[in-house]
Amino acid sequence: MALAFCLLAVTASAAWAETCENCETKGLTKEDGTGIYLIKSAADLAILLDCVNLGDPDATPAVEPNPHNNVEFKLTTSINLKDLGETPWEPIGSYVSEEADRRPFNGKFDGANPDGGRYTISGLDVSNNLPGTPTTNNRSLGLFGYVGPNGVVQNLNVQGTVSRTGLTGIQNDDTGIGGVVGHNGGRVEGCSFSGVDSAVTGPSSVGGVVGANIGANAKVINCFNTGRVTGAGSTSSYAGAIGGVVGLNSETGATVTKCYNTGPVTNDTNNTGGVVGRNFNSAAVSECYNIGLVRGLQFVGGVVGINSTTNSEVKNCYNIGNVTGLVYDDDDNKPKPDGGSPARGGVVGGNTGKVEYSYSYCTITGVYNVGGIVGLNYTSSGSSGTVQNCVSLTWRIHGAGALVGGPNYPTIKPNANSNDDGSDDNNVNVGRVVGRNSSNASEPLKGNKAREDMEVLIEGVDVALKLKSVDIGLEKRHGEGVLAEGPNAPHQSVVFAYDNGSKEGWDPEIWDVPNEYLRPGRPLPTLLNVDGPQIPKLPDHPHSPGSTDDSGGCGCDAGGFTAPGLLALAFMMGIKRLRRR
Q1: CA-to-CA distance for 123 and 126, rounded, in angstroms?
Q2: Contact indicator for 174, 211 with CB cutoff of 8 Å
Q3: Under 8 Å CB-to-CB from 503, ≥6 apart: which residues?
Q4: Angstrom distance (rounded) from CA 385 to CA 12
Q5: Is the preceding omega at residue 520 within 30 degrees of 0, hence cis?
Q6: Considering only CA atoms, which of 290, 249, 355, 182 is closest in space to residue 530?
Q7: What is the percent of the chain with per-residue pLDDT over 70, rounded to a whole number?
Q8: Phi and psi at residue 59, to the nearest 5°
Q9: What is the reported pLDDT for 15?
Q10: In terms of Cα–Cα distance, which of 48, 229, 53, 194 is closest to 122?
Q11: What was the pLDDT predicted at 139?
């Protein structure tokens, strides 16, 4: 597999040759011959924080806050912010309501170590009660609060907790809560948020690595999250956008690529995704995958919760983590697991953009609009969704409250007009590829395939044998059926085909398609340019002859894999990285 999670070379150039006199006055030193400022301790990082956020108001004359355009900083060792005491960390850079009062970091911060790895900043503790002015009202929290359009943060691992609760009435782009960066308008590359106890919590635009990635220069590349990401604490109908790596990815040019998530992502509001919560306004998500559990209320997807506007794109991604919804109890108005509305998808929950060349497996559960790839493909505000050339390999999809029933978990039952196969657009809508398609696009569905023996459940009853033939085919929401076992199972080069003449299909420079037949237990395609734990295997159908596995063979638990499985994967990846050095 090609190594894509590369550490960027640390070199000095004219583009990063500026100085910060205030940094030098406060005690930062430069690397000989490069002009790069060295961060050798938590105290040094606090100097950078002060220079960006406050300047030096007590100096004569006073020194204004400095965005550090073209100034480069290099971490020389792993540091623990607890060395500064128990005071919560104030993010470097602040994003407040008034644009004139914002304090961006527009410099370059590099955490690469000489061995080809990344240094760690641990002990991060960011909470609501922030010291200083004007950051008291900082809406974006993380190690870095606000990275401006010229800023770069790269080759850095962060461990700790970031939490903001209690805000109401906010919209997605008003906030950003991330483990590494809260609000990013520049480039975040080769960064990770990890640790057994690491967690990010907030009401809106919450991501394991970056909370909000907004703007033409906003890039999140080669990043991953293993921590817990939770959306909670807002009553606004606009709240949400909770993602394993990035919460909100928005505007033309904004990109999330070559990233992955293994941590659990849960949300009691809207727009929840394994990698990105909301992909919006012509933004792009590509070459990403998710292993972790994804659970939310409205629009829940294994990779992206909601992909909205015509030019927003999710391409060359896969998910093997369980996707499930939440249903609210009428008595206490608290969410309960394993139900919900209105859309659950193996890759994308709700879509008015483009979803292409992606696949999924593992269980998908919801009340209605439940699909193996996309839960709801629709038209909104002039944008019409398309789902093309995708493959759905899950062995079971639950709709209409399947596995939810009982007095404390109210379910939605098919009405008198239901066809009992999920084909009623006003009712349950469970599909092997797309749960419900109401898109006005000229070719809303094209070239999609689905596992032939998939269980499609409505109210716990398998209706797969009764799926209407009118809904089966490459351009239909149940997709064209492909055998997943036996002597007639197709070769994966056929299922995940690429045409050398037209250069269309599952690009061999992006995908490593195994030289295997599509059979249980055999490897599935992996992403060549993503350096992460990738061992997807086609799950065995638990009702196949001789099978005793009721999990579908995908190893799914409370996340994409059981805890021992993730530890084994982490060990394997550690060995692989050592061999590459």
Answers
A1: 10
A2: no
A3: none
A4: 45
A5: no
A6: 290
A7: 75
A8: -75, 165
A9: 60
A10: 194
A11: 75
